């Protein structure tokens, strides 16, 4: 895709981080959809080719105003809020500054200073909004319910991917203590020992400072004689992840802390019941008892008990599977998130 002319843009969505992150994934998912309704582009050093993008340096030379007068600068990180302030106050660009906050902890003094200077603020959950010192619009993340959908033939997909035919329990995301990966492994030890046909999959990347932690989880599984039934798989490309959800029978989100957390939505969209801790936005995403089970963070026992209940009751699993898919399609489609954001952009562009 050719880079758009900055002079034609009403909305700029900065993403200065090169490495894959939740924020980067959000920009990649949303901007192409939003571009169908409003003149928007990511401001980033790189993006997938289907995402409208301008280079950060183009913001320096772009016209002072946009087609509608002031432009909207939609930041999601401190560095991007600071860049918006610099463009407005040092270079004289006409910008309306918008910030999306996913944090569920007290902001630093520096972050509070930046947020106080935004024209408008969005929180990704009601819980996140409570950590802000100013009013915020709450817009929950959505996902692509066409891309994330149940398998037509789960048994055939498992066979094609070289996975065992019995029940599969997954835990996906970065491998680190904060993400609850160790809690998941501990919960699976007793669960799998009592159910010889079941297998657990841990999939994700361990960064350098968490590699020793990941190695210890491998060692723990091997010591318990479950090295071939607690499978560790590397992070896969974005276009492959949906199949890894489709093969699952249960998904576990065991985080100790989380800003938002999309994995339960991705799993439920694929018709997979979810066991999730009461952190992040999970209480706003998972319907306890209907699409899955909510448990307190940091405790393997409740996760193991919830997993056992689902594994031992295929009829219950099937009921929750259908409800999970319906729940996401009816309330968490990415098109709804994109439309809600575009409404805010238009309100900001129309404001004096």
How is the secondary structure organized here?
Layout: E1 11-14, H1 22-34, E2 40-43, E3 53-54, H2 58-61, E4 71-75, H3 78-89, E5 95-101, H4 109-116, E6 120-123, H5 126-129, E7 137-138, H6 154-160, E8 168-172, H7 181-193, E9 199-203, H8 211-223, E10 230-233, H9 241-246, E11 250-253, H10 263-269, E12 274-277, H11 282-285, E13 292-295, H12 300-311, H13 314-331, H14 334-350
Parallel strand pairs: 1-2, 1-4, 2-3, 4-5, 5-6, 6-7, 8-9, 8-11, 9-10, 11-12, 12-13
Helix pairs in contact: 1-14, 7-8, 7-12
Report what the structure shows:
- The chain is α/β, with parallel strands linked by helices.
- It folds into 2 domains: 6-142 and 334-350, Glycogen Phosphorylase B (Rossmann fold, 3-Layer(aba) Sandwich), CATH 3.40.50; 154-331, Glycogen Phosphorylase B (Rossmann fold).
- 39% of the residues lie in helices and 15% in strands.
- The strands form 2 sheets. A 7-stranded parallel sheet has the order 3-2-1-4-5-6-7, with helices on both faces. A 6-stranded parallel sheet has the order 10-9-8-11-12-13, sandwiched between helices.
- Strand 1 (11-14), helix 1 and strand 2 form a beta-alpha-beta unit.
- Helix 7 runs parallel beside helix 8 and helix 7 packs across helix 12.
- The two termini are 34 Å apart.
Radius of gyration: 22 Å
Q: What is the number of domains?
A: 2
Estimate percent helicity: 25-40%
CATH topology of the largest domain: Rossmann fold
Average pLDDT level: 94
CATH homologous superfamily of the largest domain?
Answer: Glycogen Phosphorylase B
Number of helices: 14
């Amino acid at each position: 895709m050719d880079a758009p002319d900055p002079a034609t843009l009403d909305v700029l969505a900065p993403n200065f981080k090169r490495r894959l992150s939740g924020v980067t994934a959000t920009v990649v998912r949303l901007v192409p959809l939003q571009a169908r309704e409003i003149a928007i582009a990511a401001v980033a050093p790189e993006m997938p080719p289907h995402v409208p993008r301008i280079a950060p340096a183009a913001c320096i030379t772009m016209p002072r105003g946009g087609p509608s007068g002031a432009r909207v600068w939609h930041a999601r990180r401190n560095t991007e809020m600071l860049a918006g302030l610099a463009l407005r106050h040092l270079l004289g660009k006409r910008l309306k500054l918008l910030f999306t906050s996913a944090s569920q902890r007290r902001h630093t003094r520096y972050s509070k200073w930046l947020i106080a200077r935004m024209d408008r603020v969005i929180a990704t959950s009601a819980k996140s909004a409570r950590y802000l010192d100013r009013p915020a619009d709450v817009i929950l993340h959505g996902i692509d319910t066409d891309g994330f959908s149940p398998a037509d033939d789960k048994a055939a997909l498992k066979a094609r991917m070289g996975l065992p035919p019995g029940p599969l329990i997954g835990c996906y995301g970065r491998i680190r203590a904060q993400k609850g990966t160790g809690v998941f492994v501990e919960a699976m030890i007793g669960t799998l020992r009592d159910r010889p046909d079941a297998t657990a999959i841990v999939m994700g990347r361990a960064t350098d400072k968490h590699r020793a932690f990941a190695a210890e989880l491998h060692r723990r599984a091997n010591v318990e004689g479950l090295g071939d039934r607690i499978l560790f798989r590397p992070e896969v490309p974005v276009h492959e992840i949906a199949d890894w959800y489709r093969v699952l029978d249960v998904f576990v989100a065991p985080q100790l802390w989380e800003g938002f957390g999309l994995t339960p939505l991705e799993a439920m969209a694929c018709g997979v019941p979810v066991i999730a801790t009461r952190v992040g936005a999970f209480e706003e995403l998972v319907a306890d008892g209907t699409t899955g089970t909510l448990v307190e963070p940091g405790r393997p026992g409740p996760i193991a008990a919830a997993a056992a209940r689902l594994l031992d009751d295929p009829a219950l699993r099937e009921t929750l599977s259908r409800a999970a898919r319906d729940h996401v399609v009816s309330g968490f489609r990415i098109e709804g998130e994109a439309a809600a954001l575009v409404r805010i952009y238009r309100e900001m562009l129309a404001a004096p």
